[in-house]
Amino acid sequence: MSTTTEMRYVNAVTQALRDCMEQDLTVVVMGEDVANAGGSFKATRGLLDTFGPGRVIDTPISESAIASAAVGMALTGMKPVVEIMFMDFITLSMDALVNQAAKARYMFGGQGSVPMVLRTPHGGGLSAGPQHSQCLEAWLAHIPGLKVVCPSCPQDAYSLLRAAIADPDPVMFIEHKAMYANKGEVDTAKTARIGEARIARAGRDVTLVTYGATVNVCLKAADQLGKEGMEAEVVDLRSIQPWDKAAVLESLSRTHRAVVVHEAVQAFGVGAEIVATIADEGFDELDAPVLRVAAPFMPAPFASSLEKGYAVTVDRVMDAVRKTLA
Hints:
Helix content is 37%, strand content 21%. It is α/β, with parallel strands linked by helices.
């Protein structure tokens, strides 16, 4: 019997939650409007009917309380999956995440773990404004003890969420709100490992290192560049912390050029860490400087016309590739 079906990104998230909850009674879902309303983006739709209010829990509008409760539940044997409605609101839960969840294993000599998952959507493209469009994953990746993943397709949304829920440590699971309607094949028997990148497109001339929504931007850019005789390899990190340094350096050893692409602002971002690592450990492979394509250092605009100018686009990626190949 086939385990593969086409589904939307958001439905892949729902299916992963459903499958984990059916197989493990300690898995609970909690957050604002996740039960009766099915979540702001309907990722938890239908779970209440199946699993009841004891395992699908509507919470007060307090991100700090939600995250703190999840840490306590995880420390005492549960596996909470928390939804924070927008990544921007994660700022209100940082004490629980940074000072408690991330440090429990270290502070208790490995005797206590925090097997919780925090799901949250980031990114722009919906004219949601500066308080609902931020990409703050670099904050989280900076904290020892937190794992950070960001799937770019329905298959990884399913497989990586299952891996995150099975992980004994806190995992920040970052989705992109503009990708929820994207369709793709999902094999529910396929597994994924946190910290392992994938080659989304093979190429010989330049390595594009990216994750999340900008994977699709890079794939489109690579297709256009191919018509001009330039073959770009697209490395989908999938996991930001830990990140697959070996896969990036291996790709670089073949292409000898690299461009790092992400939607978050460029300054002090994930791309800076990747570029620094390439400079430290892959410098002898480089035939040109490593370039970055990211958002400018400013809040995300509300007006759609301004947001288009703020966003990482296919043209910006192609310009960077042409520059590094010049």
